[in-house]
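@channel sequence for tomorrow's demo:
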Amino acid sequence: MLEESGALTTGEVALRLGVSWRRVLALIESGRLKARRAQPAELAVLFEAHRIRAVPAAGLLLIESQDLQAVAARPTGYPKGRPRKPGDAR
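structure tokens (generated this afternoon):
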């Protein structure tokens, strides 16, 4: 079930993308990253595999590994050559 789907926790996604788990939550809330709530059977598998230690009160979010491609190639920083303020044009 969980192994076949390739589902990752928010913490695992954060490590793969090199961002914080809060940034992963922001990507989910903005709609750029799809996530779903873990089912009880999936929680049991995650506990047995020692991939999680506890379940947050709001539940555990799982992200499919193929959905990471949508956010992996995101631009970082401010666009080059674009002025930050209207009066800063070079």
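heads up for whoever presents: The chain has one domain: 2-74.
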